[in-house]
Write the structure tokens for this entry.
Amino acid sequence: MTEAELRERLREEPVPGEQEADQRAWEVVRSSYAARERVSWIERHSRLVLVVAAAAVLGVAAVTPPGQAVVERVRESVAGRTPSEPALLRLPSGGRLLVNSSQGSWVVRQDGSKRRLGSYEGASWSPHGLFVVATRGRRVAALEPDGDVRWTVTRPNRVAQARWAPGGFRVAYREGSTLRIVIGNGEGDHLLASSVSPVAPAWRPGAVKNVLAYVDRARSVHVVDVDTRQELWSAGTGPAARKLLWSDDGRRLIAVTDRAIRIYGPRGRRISGGPTVPQGHLLVGAAVLPKGWFVYADFNERTEETTLVRGTCIASDPCLAIGPTRMFSGAGRVENLVVSADERWLLVGWPAADQLLFLRLPGTRGARRVFAVSNVAREFDPGGTGVRAFPHAAGWVEDATS
Amino acid sequence: MPRAGRDERAWVRGAQAGSASDLEALFRNQWPRAYRAAYLVVHDSAAAEDIAQEAFLAAVRALDSFDRRRPFGPWLHRIVVNRAIDWSRARSLRREVGDDALADAPARRVPPRRQLSEGITGALAELTPEHRAVIVLRYLLEYTPGEIARMLELPRGTVNSRLRRGLDVLRGQLAEEEL
């Protein structure tokens, strides 16, 4: 083979996906180019946006010692202080918050009372918060919200990431590198898929069919009807997806990778509007908001600052053509974005400040836009004397009686 | 100046001024080579799409500050090939780490290399990503060894040795295929 023949073969031999990728990528690039102009407007007005956000954050964080260190840079330019809550004495709106900590799983009520469910490693709510499904070691347990155990399933290997289906009749969980399904009464445990990635499976909203999304070890996303075991679609995400989310109408699947958010429509069609953050940045969190919006946390590794951005609307129905909007910018890395039961607040974990931030969502009214709580690690590790891990909020549901 | 180069600079200028059609011309002109280069290094169509797409998105983000006197292609190709190498290395690392934990996995996917078509792609699979990258830069994208050395921040001698080694392996593989 001569060098000329090699050139010809490299140029001419077909490679998979070339034609299909072309149009998909152009749509993404085109929308990014269009968004660039819209973001430019925000950039021009960003000083005001950032001052408002920074003032609010500074105000709530600056009076606590951990907060002082984290917001030092912000404080230099913005004045004004309002004390944060010294502990999680209440939630800013109704419902119950499920929190996983090194001491186990906890249910926090609006009045700040906390009930420890047991020494579980992870837990999540059932639909409407009627039950909690928790994991520890090789055991999956369904619990009443007061901690009473309804049923358990014990497996040969470690289990994790149990998630209850929206209809209430199925629970998915990982055992090692397999994905399993158990009926909502604890019976009929069976294998759904092998070689899955350690990413929490995500049930599609809507109670008609039990449809689950998961990521396999080859980094492909699969969407499966778990009752018929029929694969509805699958798609590669390129870089490995770290988190899967469904839009509230169940018509968009969001796959979050280290630096990009991929959005899929029906049958796995890629939808434009998923942002990619620059080199040196990391997506450290994401959550779905009502009405086709989503929010993501963009951590800049160089400046060690996180910006929370509400992405463009991705609803399948016509929605407001507003570009990305910055909701918050602060020093340190945030994580664990959770939307409140009444869809008015976004809970954000801020380990560097040992705080939970509650940010009022755009489009909702109220006097207070930011509500912060300090000393969070100690709150969920009472009596602990060692290094405390920052707890993780696993979901915020309405009150069972409402 | 070659016409393609003049066109490219005009497209960059137009895109900087807000012309989506100029951006599209730039994209249509560069996408096939960017995607192909990425694919020939990573051998994974989804990853190639992401790598090439992210390189274009990086271009969009950097558009306002891009120096129009510089050629656009090499700037883009440098991003594509370096990211493709990074992705391949990360995948190898993940596979090494992941396999221990996967001892109980009953049905592992067939490694991507075995899924590749025969021909030049299959032959390239016998090379490391670093070797594939220099072959792609030299024989697909037509850069000189000196330019490749600068793009990959390597000594020129390393580039030459990788080219020689790569060519030897490819010749061997393709000769076997023809038998």
About this structure: The mean pLDDT of chain B is 79.
